[in-house]
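Hey, can you fold this one?
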Amino acid sequence: MRIQPRQEILDIWRATVRSCWEKGEWHWGGRSGSNSINDAEQLLTLLLPASKIPALSLDDPDRADDEVIEALNSLGGAIEIPRRLVTVMIDYFRRYTAEDGTPVFGGGGYLTPVEGGPELTEEQRSQDIVDSFAVSVTLTLATIGFVKVYRSATQRRELLAQLDELETMASIRLTAAMVGLLRSFSTFVFTSTDEYGRRLCDMVNQDELPRRELVAALREQLRDTMASLRSVVIGSGRVTEDLDNSDMLFECGWSWGIIAGAEEVPTSESIGRQREGSAENAPYLYFTVIAMDAIEDLNSERTRLLGLLNEEQQRLSRALQLRWELTRTYWATVATFGNRRRWPIEDIPWRTTDGDRTDYYTLQATSLAVKGLLAVGRGGDEELGRIAAVLVELAQRARVTRRATPGESALLVHTPGKRVTLNDDTSKPIMTWVVNEFSTVLLQRAITVAGLLSNARRRSELLELADEVWDHLLLRRIPDGRHRGLWDHAGGAFPGLAPRPEAPSWYLTARVVQALVNAGQLLWDRPFPRAARLSGYAQDLIDEAEYLFDRELMRGTFAGEAMQRSMRSIRASLRQAQLLVDERPGTAAALANTLLLLLNDVTTGQQKASEGI
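Sure. Predicted structure:
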């Protein structure tokens, strides 16, 4: 992998501080103005790597790396950096808390009018949206984890008081975001013969089965999911239609905001007013993937080890986990239904039940498909290899790894991006949400799937794709000015496609950082795939070295103090090679080779000595 996650993240940190910190003040906002999502992404550009990659942590001045301090030196030294970050985080949580104490989750400038429609009102822009709930979960968990570690590294009374205030505000916002996700969950039920059912059947019917046989097979694979949907009893997504009817089908996932008519979620936390919803009761693939990733953060190892959730939040997390599992199973089943010809996800582009179709939806569906394959024990190299092939084709179709022709429609996925229409409870379009994250999502998916492959060659091939996507993204960095080194200048990769921007897109920059964090975790946490042939070769070398060593011991070769030291060294090296043979067979083989040469020298020396040479 040519990507250097640590160095690239440090470069982005330098660019972020240069863009946002001026004359002792943090400047919010970006290309889409200042809102609860944009400003959270701005903060996560710094906090996400610091919370997930130990070598880049910022919460303990005594452990801060010199390169980290240098990258953020505009904020001060090792002592000042975390203090100023605390001030910035407190400012964020205050900005997005209403006077009555209710956290604010509006989309602001990220929401745009429908084509040909009137400008949005302030009330429309302030509506709670799932993207804000999701990014708030990630931000608050990073904040609470930061506070818990930093608190043990300081004794200053005024700073401890700030940390207490920050943790309280972050915890309230976390609970409110979890409640928002519970009230945005959707189960959409329809018959197999209406327009939604026909589109779903057409998408999944890759084996050209008769319609009745297809519906029966699909319902059979989703039988447990349909039964478990009855466990959804709080928030939204409750099934009121008769799913036992053999003609009924469904979708589940997250709508764009709180479902119209969603009940309030009982909670003992003081989260303020639970606002009325206005979103239609239908899943949106984009918001479903965003919500799923946030819920994974709630159940991560770091969240458990640091005890980031209180008792009430753990209760809400269990309710969200149920919805996560139902959604994962549903989408993985649909995406990989049938197996004789091809999976639906391999039939690009993905078509949704509302009639929309785009390569971007195929890319998003790969995330849910991988989660589902792993859950049911089908995440082997053969299945993941099919997903990898889809990613390679998507990269070509979007002209990320192929030369682009000016003006071709494939470039629209990059800018202005995919326009997602947001409907009210009557399915009437009220506003839109523009998504232009295709390249960054492609990079994340390639790195994630590569980390799951056990075949070293296939893993290397997919990481080569990741490198090509990264080369593409490097062309899209803002080249000069105060915001240089941030994203997004699409015209850098596709000349003439878009003018040079005057402000950074924190939406895209944060996603670049997330992809780099994934790459860093791949290198830091996941072992290199075991190569069976190489492991066997290494084990054979170790076995021969151990045999020769034991034989020399029997001959008494290692008599004398110097030879005793040599014996202990060889024995320790043999033990180390044996420990490495599973995870690092190449290293174990190299070590065994060195020992074999050493033992050969010992044997040769003994023979010459016995012959009087």
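The longest helix spans residues 157-182. Let me know if you want another pass with a different chain boundary.
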